[in-house]
Design brief:
- The protein is α+β, with helices and mostly antiparallel strands and 207 residues long.
- The protein is built from four helices and eight strands, in the order H-E-E-E-E-H-H-E-E-E-E-H.
- Strands 1, 2, 3, 4, 5, 6, 7 and 8 form an eight-stranded antiparallel β-sheet that branches.
- The protein is globular.
- This is PknH-like extracellular domain-containing protein.
- Keywords: Signal.
Length: 207
């Protein structure tokens, strides 16, 4: 993940992912039928950076490593994962994941699963490593398509590394999207209002 954390925190990620342990009830891998691919955010639709413009990478198949701090594929069927990463010239980055499931009911369950992983991320990180002090914040739900939820995470290691992330989970029909913005620092300069706007755009753009 783009958030700079030390080796002790990185080791905690694998433990935290396994600790999530939630298994969704869904068809076997490959059961989801093919449909039109979801559309992704563009660089200009991310929260504006005060001194640097955003650059968008290509849309890529698979699950992004950049989401690995809180979200994983552990216990989740092999859905159609695609992602796009974004960066600035400084210490700010972002990533969007889209997941196409087989049915709207499966997507609803997956969205809740991802939101639960993000909601419990701070506690799981602290439990997995004494070197991490983490705080999660709930920024509420958004009325867009089938809904979205925005949360925040701040992590500080005993060595002084301090990182903040804003994460959201939204759904349109049988497709789920996760958006993450992150940079060095704490909640003080986190662009919550702009990130909510980005999340609404991300969900509306899916189809």
């Amino acid at each position: 993940m783009s958030m700079r954390i030390r080796t002790s925190a990185l080791t905690a990620l694998a433990v935290a992912a396994l600790a999530a342990g939630t298994v969704l009830t869904a068809p076997a891998a490959g059961a989801a039928t093919k449909a039109a691919a979801p559309t992704f955010l563009s660089a200009s639709q991310l929260p504006p950076h005060p001194t640097s413009s955003w650059t968008a990478g290509p849309v890529t198949e698979g699950f992004p490593e950049a989401l690995g701090l809180c979200v994983s594929t552990e216990g989740v069927p092999s859905y159609d994962y695609r992602h796009r990463e974004f960066r600035t010239d400084l210490d700010t980055s972002a990533v969007q994941l889209t997941v196409v499931t087989g049915t709207a009911a499966q997507a609803k369950a997956l969205a809740k699963h991802y939101d639960d992983l993000i909601r419990t991320c701070a506690d799981r990180l602290e439990q997995s490593s004494p070197d991490i002090d983490a705080e999660g914040r709930d920024y509420g739900t958004l009325a867009v398509e089938e809904g979205a939820h925005v949360r925040g995470l701040n992590t500080e290691t005993s060595g002084g590394a301090n990182d903040v992330a804003l994460l959201s989970v939204g759904r349109d029909g049988r497709t789920v999207t996760v958006v993450q913005w992150s940079q060095l620092g704490d909640f003080t300069n986190a662009p919550v209002a702009a990130f909510k706007k980005t999340t609404i755009t991300a969900v509306n753009k899916l189809y």
